[in-house]
Design brief:
The protein is α/β, with parallel strands linked by helices. It has one domain (7-236): 3-Layer(aba) Sandwich (Rossmann fold). The protein contains 10 helices and 7 strands. The chain has a 7-stranded parallel sheet with strand order 3-2-1-4-5-6-7, with helices on both faces. It is globular and about 55 Å long. The relative contact order is 0.13.
């Protein structure tokens, strides 16, 4: 995709990876709508590059519609949609059913609902690009937090399905699977009063280098331009993923041992 002159929507753009991707796309010549549930944070991001901001819940159909309408009204039809908004959810099995519903809505259904809103239009126009910001947890797992691990696996699966189903119709899909990135989300895990959440944070920070969001954004922008599906800011994740597939029993046993060193 030619990013220069395109129109992009980025969710969860008020901070972290979302803010960095929004700025990166703007630097590459895109007109960007920064969406976030926090109006002030979204506006702060948009002010960095002269974009537009929308306070919206990116997990709801109404919120997605508001983002797309703001983009059309301000810049024109959307060419790139970055589904970045996400939460960590509860530790362990997650005792609260409402909390499970919430993380499924934000980490997964937000992607599904956004794709349902943009893909039909992109098919008619002959192109578009969907970015699913998932996690290395979607290829491996997330110690200490079943809801996060499950929803990130599902986000990767949905991105794969989109790429397979619509790739021959001019629609690009990129799936971003980083490990540790210096964001408020990771900081919140590391500083949580809950032991299991801290274990989850430690599993991330001890597995590899904690990157700055700008480093991830650079790779995402390049992936959109090149039409690359899998974006691995931490290349070692591919080795881990191959080891997992090569011997699942050994990998699970190894993950148990790794968890015991963090508890």
């Amino acid at each position: 995709m030619n990013i220069d002159g395109s129109v992009a929507v980025v969710t969860g753009a008020g901070s972290g990876i979302g803010r960095a991707i929004a700025a990166g796309l703007a630097s590459a010549g895109a007109s960007v709508v920064a969406g976030d549930i926090d109006a002030a944070s979204a506006a702060e991001t948009a002010a960095m590059f002269g974009g537009a901001s929308v306070a919206a819940d990116a997990s709801s159909t109404d919120g997605i519609a508001a983002l797309l309408e703001a983009a059309r009204r301000t810049f024109g039809p959307v060419d790139i949609y970055v589904a970045n908004a996400g939460i960590t959810g509860e530790p362990g099995l997650g005792d609260d059913e409402a909390a499970w519903d919430r993380i499924i809505d934000i980490n997964l259904r937000a992607h599904i609902r956004a794709a349902k809103a943009v893909v039909p239009e992109w098919i008619k126009r002959g192109g578009g690009h969907f970015v699913a910001v998932a996690s290395a947890a979607g290829l491996l797992t997330q110690l200490g937090a079943a809801p996060y691990s499950v929803t990130k696996h599902a986000a990767v699966g949905f991105a794969e399905w989109l790429a397979i189903t619509y790739g021959d119709k001019g629609i690009g899909v990129s799936c971003v699977c980083p490990m540790g990135v210096n964001t408020p989300l990771l900081q919140g895990m590391s500083e949580s009063p809950d032991q299991e959440i801290r274990v989850a944070g430690a599993a991330v920070t001890s597995a590899g280098t904690v990157l700055d969001p700008d480093a991830v954004a650079t790779l995402v922008v390049q992936a959109i331009a090149d039409g690359t599906f899998l974006v691995l800011p931490h290349p070692e994740v591919l080795t881990m993923y191959r080891q997992k597939g090569a011997d699942y029993e050994r990998w699970i046993a190894g993950m148990r041992r790794y968890k015991s060193t963090l508890s």
